[in-house]
Amino acid sequence: MTRLAVLAAASLSAGRGLEAAEQVIRAGLTQLGARVLEGLLAADRGYTGPRAGCDAGHQAEFVSYRGKTVDTVLGPVAISRAWYHCAACRHGFAPRDARLGVAGQAVSPGLRKMIARAAAAVPFAAAARLISELAGITLTGKRAGRRAEADGAAAAAVIEARAAAIAARRLVPLPPARPLPDKLYVCIDGTGVPMIAAETEGRDGKGQDGKARTREVKMAVAFTQTSVDDKGRPVRDPRSSSYLATFAPAAGFGTLMAAEARRRGAGHVRQLIILGDGAAWIWNLAGQHFPEATQVVDLYHAREHLHDLARLLEFMLGDRKQDWLAARLDELDNGDIAAICAAARTFPLTGSKAGDLDTALGYFEHNACRMRYARFKKLGMFVGSGAVEAGCKAIVAQRCKLSGMRWSLAGAYGILTLRCLQASDRWEETWTEAGRPGAA
Ligand SMILES: [Zn+2]
Asked: What is the pLDDT of residue 110?
């Protein structure tokens, strides 16, 4: 401490300013901390006798003490621990590593958390620079990315295991805190994430050559609503949104979504509402997991479909297109789907145009009961997921769809999981379980 004070004083008197002195002191304290930690870790080298049980249940033999350097929030720390070898598995391990949470890797749980937080927020190279600037720890963007993706995958595995337990009724979520929220909304949507070629091989898509460049991530956001404002418009309960994202097919997504809805009180609130863009897989899942829920097609998606319909009929409507569209949008707001279909069917179309019209109107006809917007609004319900959906998309777009980005499926899943945890304010509980010593 005295030496540090002398160094800092020298820095200050040399006119290098307060910041230089701060940095000198922090670097010194961090180094001191690393030596303290090293001393503590040296006290227990994890010797459990001449034999130790391996993961597969064999008895492994003690070989020797081996050294390893672990990167921590205090910088590199050298440890020496008992090394065992399992003849049956032909592999060696240190029981101490598992207890410290550094089995098979050289980054401490504390530093991993720091890396994961930064890498969830910004691209890997920028995350590494942030950590260097804020914590004085030097690492490459590549290493930061590998660690964050792997730890995000571990968090995803925890979430999936919990969802499976809830689905099997082995785990029953506690009811939400009283007073119970009145309505629980689950909004479901999908968006594409750009992938490396290996992840899209053989998949059809929207690329110019007809090949896929992206994989669809399915997202859900759950939030509650208890009140309406003085104009009768619904108000989302503050800080009530929780997010999930997965590349799994619909069935796997359904399990995760249903577990999240139950965790949020689906079995306790007065009304459960599923909001979606009108895609059939969403309503299939809703019917399968929550047949009692009210289904609502997101109004903004429905409006987009009306714009498409007007474009389809543009060659007949000519100058009247805008007026015609405005009238249909009013009908949509009133939930009068029959009027929309009747107005569109006054045009005597034939051939492929008639087929296109049938397809366009099919969207409205199949979803008519989910578009009773006037009634839903009268009941004080949300009918559009605009703001929430924007939040949902922001989780993906602002981190995974930046210019030039190409992801592996596992990597994107890991990072999106971390971003969902962050946006849901559920980081600590899941991270602790995923990062506990011994977890993969
Ligand atoms: Zn073994």
From this structure: 94
